[in-house]
Amino acid sequence: MKLKHLLAGAVIAAAAGPAAAQTLQIQASGNSGSFVDLFYKGWAERFNRMTGEGRTQIEILPFQAVVPYRETLDAIGAGILAGDMQAVSYFAGRDQAFSIIGDLISGYDTPDQVSMFCQYGGGKEVLQEAYDSIMPGQLHVVGCAAFTREALVSAVEINGVDDLKGLNIRAPEGLATAVFEAAGASPVPLPYSEVFSALEQGVIDAADASSYADNARTGVHEVAPYPLYPGIHSMAVLQLVIGQRQWDAMSEADQLALETWYTAMMTSMARASFIEDERVKTEEIASGTVTVIDWPQEERDKLRAIAVGAWEAAAAQSDLAEKALETHRSFMKKIGLLD
């Protein structure tokens, strides 16, 4: 019944003609009630006040509220959803370009650098090209950005690249696995829900997990008291993609409002996430429950040099993936991350 209602609403909006008032139902990556979900919804209210009655409105739906997370693009094409606000890398199975755009493991030092790549370094444009290659004329990329740097949680001290050798590390399939393997670790594919028990039982030594604050909330630091923060590897790129029909039905003013709103929201979320991570980190250090490890820049640079081989192997799988990597490299040279 829910799907039928959404489909009917989308068809009506699509048929209403240019600059028609419409409500864009967008499925996002935040679990219901989570920091991300609540942040998105708060900012959706701001957008709706900005545009006002009779103009474009948005509704942010939580993770998998309507369809499984890898099926959102097809749902947009079918008119069931109007948009997707999830991680770009969810669609790496369609082309390795999405993996390279979505999380260039160990590539950047800060979320702001990733967001600059999207906004000023060609990231948004190459992402649009990737979507045009798999669903021509059906999707419009409003923007992309990163908001947090994932912390690596560990039951043992990892003070540099050499300490990764021989460790069993939980990592998702794809670039993260390839980079850790190249550094001498043994990646173990596990769902996030099993990270705590695997660390507690010694099945793994460390884990690619979530932000510092989220890891602390789930109690992972109780069994992994040596978190690496700021993290050394992952900064997922999130996106706002909406159906081309819905985009074309918006007024130019509403299109500009949505682009501006997305950039402002992601910038604000990055700042709020950083403040929360720092608050929780300070409290845990004061309590003596953790030893936070912050790799020096030379160790981060060593891991980046190792990661280049994994990037190149992934890029070799498609022409578009190669273009995505070259776009990253060009921007990284401009800001001094690569020679």
Structure description:
This protein has about 350 residues and is of the alpha/beta class. The protein folds into two domains: about 1-150 and about 235-275, 3-Layer(aba) Sandwich (D-Maltodextrin-Binding Protein, domain 2), CATH 3.40.190; about 150-235 and about 285-320, Bacterial extracellular solute-binding protein, family 7 (D-Maltodextrin-Binding Protein, domain 2), CATH 3.40.190.170. It is built from 13 helices and nine strands. The protein has helices at about 1-15, 35-50, 70-80, 95-100, 110-120, 125-135, 175-180, 195-200, 210-215, 245-250, 250-285, 295-315, 320-335; strands at about 25-30, 55-60, 85, 140-145, 150-155, 170, 185-190, 205-210, 240-245. It has a five-stranded mixed beta sheet, sandwiched between helices. The radius of gyration is 20 Å and the shape is globular.
In a few lines, what is going on in this structure?
This is TRAP dicarboxylate transporter-DctP subunit. 48% of the residues lie in helices and 12% in strands.
